Fold these 2 entries.
Entry 1:
Amino acid sequence: METRALSPALPPVSVISLGSWNSFSRCSPEILERLLATAFDRGVNLLDIGYYWDKPDTEEAVAAALSALGAPRDRYMVAQKLWLWDYPAESFETQLARSLGRLRHDHVDIVMVSRPTAGLDVEAYLAEVVALIGKGMARAWGVTNFLPDQLREAIGHCDRNGWPRPVLQQMQYNAMRRGVVEGPGYAELFASGEIGLCAAHIMEGGILAGHLDRDRVDPPDFAQGVKPVDRNIARDSGHIREEIRARQPRFAALAREIGASVAQLAIAFALAHPGLKTALIGVTRPDQLEEDLDAVRFVARLPEIRAALDALAIEGVAHPKLFNPHNDI
């Protein structure tokens, strides 16, 4: 598995990483152990983990599987999400300490923090994140969905204060939902190498792979007993999902044209982004993982279908709003 450098504080990261919302916790203990064993055997070395509002057992499930495997701690890295749901009443240190307890780890490798809400003192906010590294609770940090100006501001604070810069920006990015990542602001940041792209939602919650019935169930509806089809997926920022469903057969035809599965084409597209460091996949079966990891060989075939692939990009893509399950509607 190809790897790419993140920072002097970390080993190079595999270009495909494992985990996403509603991934690990959807596996039985036996399947999760096999899934992680397969990932490690194939060179995947980053697990993206978090405490999720509708799957609160994710960290414990991963901890149990890693323990059962006897996986050496230097064999993998953990990227751990920190949320703003109860911040600043609950500090990042308190939140991370609780997650470390559930993970049975004494540190994570990357803490991933959401973009700050309006009114927060950004420098103080970042200082609290960087302090986690100084306390040995994390080795590096990254961000999710920071706006371009916020990223530049954060990098500026780091340089002035002698803090480590963020190593990753996690964003939704796929063959049809690409306008934000490839648009003004972000395109320049990723091209400059100042921060690396961690591509998430690369299959639109599985819709690009053919699971057309999947959609979002918001926290209030979930609390009332509404269950998602197969799994829950992210909100439809920009309201383009119906058009994604409509274009999925054309996407599948392009995959057949180069001899790939639709999932492999979706992954290969993300891997081809010049600023990409790692792409997240959320498989739940070892055989799926084996297939998805073979997507790397199709990156070289993309020029054959590039014009048709670019024609599938959808206008009107929007940046996701900040999420809070306590008040999300």
Entry 2:
Amino acid sequence: MVVFGGTGELARTKLFPALFSLFKQKKLPEQFFIIGFSRRDFDDERFREWVRDLLIRGSTPKGVEPLHEGFAQHIFYQKGFFDEEVAYEQLIKQLGEFDQQMGACITRFFYLATPPDHYSTILDHISETKLSEGCGHPSAGTSAMSSVPNGSGQHKWTRLIIEKPFGKDLTTAQMLDKKLSQIFEEEQIFRADHYLGKETVQNILTFRFANGIFEPVWNKNYIDHVQITWTEKKGVEGRGAFFDGVGILRDVAQNHLMQLIASVVMEQPRSFSKEGVRDARADAIKAIRCVESEEVSHSVVRGQYSGYKAVEDVAKDSNTETFIAMKLFVDAPRFENVPFYVRAGKKMTKDEVSISIVFIQTCHILFKEYGCPEEGNVLTIRIQPDEGIGVRFIAKKPGAKLSLGTVDMKFSYQDEFGGKGADAYEKLLLDIFAGDQMLFNRSDELESSWELITKILEGWKSQKSEVRSYEPGTWGPKEAKELIQKDGKKWL
């Protein structure tokens, strides 16, 4: 695996910890090679020390140093700037030596763990140097695959992993997809959105379609509305340069929120297969109704937390949003006229990612004179931090007088199964190694989601939308509350 951006935040916080965890679980082969490609002035040993340090800092158990040392022996380094061809030529030589050492053609995984503005440059050099063709091409520097003719199934030996955001709008996403398709075949491309690897998101399919008690009421006849929340207590410190050119609409809404909506609205896949699930997911995202430019000011709230402009590498006059709240609809018979209220923000009250299905309140029909709770039946899927599912229902309070209240039943992965399942990146890495694309975005999914996001961006520009300020540690600007309250509802 070649990790472009091998010393960056993604490699440091996600990839190397996930790879090390797989190593500890003996889920990696005896022989593997991880090459960090970055501009830092490292050699192999200095890079190994850097990886050991970050893994040790993230470890809680004692006595794991031998494991760190064993893992580090599989790690190598290639110094270079992404636009320098000589660094790619040196990489080809190094990869060729690994093939020669193994006496076979080793599958190569190119992981673009860099900011998106580097994608095009890296892809161009991967193509021009023929790295994309695998170890069979003439410049590979190995005789291990001399029996494999040029152009004969070499796509089997390379895979490309690319991280979100995939572009900045619909046009740039289409351009990126075109470039990818010119270099790689679709089965080689893994568009990673780690939310699809989260245990709870995957469990929504099982929850809906393996249990006969929920699917019959999973429609407009029983559901009043849906709320989706994605919030973080932290801000953008350390990521100012990246985030200020992106914003939370692109960074979170275009991918994570769209995937969470799709998990709720998708129809039953024709089969639990790669294309069966991806077809159903693509149809669901396509069905999310676009917000036209003139409606953006009524259906979308954008906010920025106080103090954001003081963050390092953030423009002093920035109008980049750190909060978004939207009212969306899905053009599908099952969810006709059912509103979806979604919000995402930085510097919020707490860390939370959840989906709440709020059912139509019927309590008043029989118990009107006794008073019904404001909130009735709610099904909440907790994605983080406490993964699980909860159901709220109405019950009689103890006592001689009839009085009603709500109670919650909660299922926790930790309590029931003694763990939370595989880390999202561990799951995605194992699927990449196995060539399973079920939990990875397909180009038609991305095009539909970018169409929605681009229309909102255009609406902000044409309507000169105002960025609302909010204080850190709150639930966003007051306009976000008004967005849902004007419909007679409230955020849970």
